[in-house]
Write a structure and sequence with these properties.
341 residues, alpha+beta, Phosphorylase Kinase, domain 1, Aminoglycoside 3'-phosphotransferase, Chain: A, domain 2, 2 domains, 6-stranded antiparallel β-sheet, 3-stranded antiparallel β-sheet, 12 strands, 18% strand, globular
């Protein structure tokens, strides 16, 4: 992307930060994904994080709802999440003009000390150490779902739904994965059949309270920080109403090709059950939800070509998704342990 775009966006964030009672010394772009995330150094205090939200992804009401839920999570005392910081006038988010006609929202959260779980996993010295981390992730997600069940949401609360339509309906939240650019007729047919099969599975599973509710929807290892022996959840931008199993699948998806994946899978279920019910029948559907995650990511990437300018990642992910869907449709668990060699 042209450099002037980053300059415009950074300048817009700087203008928006004028609504907060901060003395800002510098702004640094940290990451580009669903949003632009900036580290904001303050003159007399620790840094904070500013997010410039993607145009059209969340409405102001949805952002305010996210703010309310994260505040409630922290107030519960049983879980830790990055704490939102309100502007001087009490607003959770401030609208700013980035360019002509391009108006977006900026929100601020506190800086989370510690290291992302992804770094801790890189340094883990054994499969048992990795499994121990995922047992703790399971505890966190079980506690999160228990909190969301008992929290009295404001009447104005609005978030997206990762329900049947949101995952595999005509226009899923993250794009029509069965129609990704570059897919040939045969690949589209396989993806479409997998979509139909997953649609039936979700419809039969249903949305009873013991399996469906308010979820994080993106608790992968970069969205969990290890600090003082505790895992802290960050980035609730995708949070909405969905299946509890989807959170579990997202958390372990990046480990699916690791030799210790069976231990990771068992550990997260074990930890989850310390905080929340998960029947054996539901746990058996974890591979179905892992495939849903793979297909959702395929649609997400196809809808964001700016993140994959060469198209190589989309090409790779398409081939992998088709291969996994073929196995799934033939009755083989594509996420089952593979024999060595």
């Amino acid at each position: 992307m042209p450099d002037d775009r980053w300059e415009r966006e950074e300048a817009a964030v700087a203008r928006a930060l004028g609504a907060w009672p901060f003395d800002v010394s510098s702004i640094e772009l940290l990451s580009v994904s669903e949003n632009l995330v900036f580290r904001v150094a303050l003159v007399d205090d620790s840094p904070v994080v500013a997010r410039l939200h993607r145009h059209g992804y969340n409405t102001l009401v949805e952002l305010e709802s996210e703010h309310a839920w994260v505040c409630a999570i922290n107030e519960s005392g049983s879980l830790a999440a990055s704490r939102p910081i309100e502007a001087a006038d009490g607003r959770s988010h401030v609208e700013v003009e980035v360019a002509d006609g391009d108006r977006r929202f900026v929100g601020v959260v506190d800086w989370v000390d510690g290291r992302p779980l992804s770094r801790e996993l890189e340094d883990a010295e054994s499969a048992d150490a990795v499994a121990d981390w995922y047992r703790e992730v399971g505890v966190v997600l079980g506690g999160l779902h228990r909190q969301s069940e008992t929290w009295g949401r404001p009447s104005s609360f609005r978030r997206r739904s990762w329900d049947v339509d949101g995952m595999v309906g005509p226009d899923p939240e993250w794009g029509r994965f069965w129609e990704v650019p570059g897919a040939d007729a045969g690949q589209r047919e396989i993806l479409g059949r997998a979509r139909s099969s997953l649609h039936q599975m979700l419809a039969e599973l249903g949305t009873a309270e013991d399996r469906f509710g308010l979820i994080h929807a993106d608790p992968y290892a970069d969205n969990l920080f290890a600090h003082e022996g505790r895992l802290v959840l960050i980035d609730f931008d995708d949070a909405g109403f969905g299946w509890h199993l989807y959170d579990l699948s997202v958390a372990i998806y990046d480990q699916a090709n690791a030799r210790w994946f069976p231990a990771v899978r068992s550990a997260i279920v074990e930890g989850y059950r310390e905080q929340h019910e998960l029947s054996a029948d539901h746990a058996d559907l974890l591979s179905d939800f892992l495939l849903l995650r793979m297909l959702a990511l395929l649609g997400w990437l196809a809808d964001r070509p700016e993140l994959d300018p060469t198209g190589k990642r989309l090409e790779h992910d398409l081939l992998a998704a088709v291969r996994y869907c073929e196995a799934y449709l033939s009755g083989v668990d594509p996420f089952a342990p593979r024999p060595p060699g």
